[in-house]
Task: structure prediction
Amino acid sequence: MSQTLPKLSHHLVDDAQYNLMRAVGYLTADERADILDACHFGDVAHIKDKRKSGEPYITHPIAVAEILAGFRLDRDTIIAAILHDTVEDTEVTHEQITERYGDTVARLVDGVTKLKSSKHDKLQNKAATFHKILTATLDDPRVLIIKLADRLHNMSTLDAVRPEKQRATARETLDFYIPFARLMGLNDIADYIEVLCYRNLDHVMYTKLSDKILQHGLGRNFTKEGIHHYLTYVLDNLGLHGHVKVLDNRVAMYRRFFRNRGELSDLLRHYAFEIVLNSVEACDKLAYYLITKYKISDANIQDNIRRPLPGGNQSLTLTYERVNDTIKVTIMTKQMQKAAKLGAIGANSASEASQAVIQASLRNLKDLVSDSISGSEYEADIDFQSAVATIDALMNYLHSSKILCYSPQGRAYELPRGATALDFAYAVGPFVGNIAVGALIDDAPAKLGTVLQDGQKVQIEIDSESAPKAEWLGFIVTNKAREQVLRWFKDLSAVEKQHHGEQALDRALSTYQKGLKDLNEADWDNLFAWRGISSKAELFEQISQGKLLPQLVVSRLFSEAVADKQAEDEAIGKRQSQHEVATAAGVELALANCCHPIYGDPILGHQSRHGLVVHRHKCFSLDAIRKDHPYQIIQLSWRDQDDSDNAPGDKTYYLAYLKLSTVLTDEQVSEVIYHLRELDIGIEKIDVRASDTDIHLLVLSRKHLAQAITTLRALLDFPNIRRLYQL
Result:
């Protein structure tokens, strides 16, 4: 083939073109001719451009196209990959690409073209670019896979750039592109990129694990062969026709190692296998055999055939122990395997259940995008400041744990973990949410404030005479639900707002078997002084406008009544946390002793008889309260530290507890104390035990604690370190 290909500007470009043309052999002759033409066009356009390594720049986009050819993507996607940097970096115009290769190619190239404006700072330009990629991907998912292939090749060739640039690129990729790719079901390419992120993020940690994998390579291969032989025997014995494949599970190992999830020696004993069978019935038969034989608990069974993952991927995954090895077996059909390779791009070949989940993800993403921004007019119309806010919301969404709940008709709705039945109602639609009065969760009656679990069936009960209530703002989780409630109240007259605020406060007082009639003049004066207002009408209006939760009003009134009963150390904790919790300013707070939250932890408030108690959002003690009294749980958030009203140098420290899976020597204890004090971290206690070590620290925030853990892991040769929430 090499003799028949036209010569380009450099022998390295010729090599890149040759490799690409070998990879696109699945396309027609005419399509391959167009791709050859695009290689020549791109070579001429980038003729003056060089990579940091000194190679001709065009070798990069051709290599990106070759990566995509491995997925057997179409002619338009391959050509768009070859030309993806031309409009951004050369004199080539959008119109030229349209005329030569068609509207689709031009639109794909435009989708991955960065936005740059000298009138805006780096953060705004980056946010606008992410916003544009998000918008273009929702229009055509092929935009994202081009960008991912681009990022994959760039991440594999970062050696020529500065270490700071390597780390920044790796962090950006982990924060945005990887979770976005997984949400769109593009897990295969995301896995390869994620491993490269770890390599560029921290060479020392990456090399540590890589060397260990190489050292244990022969033993691991021997174990893999044994497990593979056994699983193949099981298929034959059960009369099942299928294929057992050993999976490269390095990405899971690196992820767990970098995130401090397990001992290094334990991670090396993790193995992963994929079994592809002909039918769901065959998958279930094999799963039943393995579950019975190895007594696999429900916690180690993931049935994502009936409940597809976000992005639509379907499989049945079992994790079990066998002779000190941890074995993960992923069972799927051929259709599921094919759909999993391309996620949203291959949605047409996915099952109905998978397509429903993909559509649920796409609906949520579309809610984040402004309807006024579109296509080629993007740069002219975009509000760069608004793009920053949108990307902040997107980042929160991408990094939140998600659940999937279903309507009685089987339609999937994707919600953040911790979402309530009311959040589900608003996900169905504003009209349903506004008149919701209750719910049936898996056919059992439930309150609107009930927290949903993954896979539940939810039916919302409605009453056309009902209306939103101000206290809902205390427990709804999704931005969509919050915005709809606030929008409903905004359209009311001042008199109606006051009426709804009054009703909401009276209902909140009923938690303490009291009502508005029980508040005396001193109580009202206290509230007026707190809010800087002069009348009940103003207070009621603040409640209906979402500026003040009625639950917080009650907490302020009643926590002060019992303040003299609190121990002095608890009072100190209240005064400290009062400055840090933004959503509860002016309310007496206590930090819960059951979970010891620190600044930066996701938090919830429990409206108790002793005031508002701040818990971590995963605190086990909240489960029973949620079940019986969901309205006593309030969404809280920390104040931005830059906005703190503490005096300069006045720092709030929080107690945090760590367990290290290593026994420290006296010399190591001294080193630990020295390095932690260098980070401005206090050490209250170091308790060396027979098989591990506990350390009690005083830190400023969750990030501060993460610094401590990172430092300790590097200092002590990467032991596992767990944060303890209860001693």
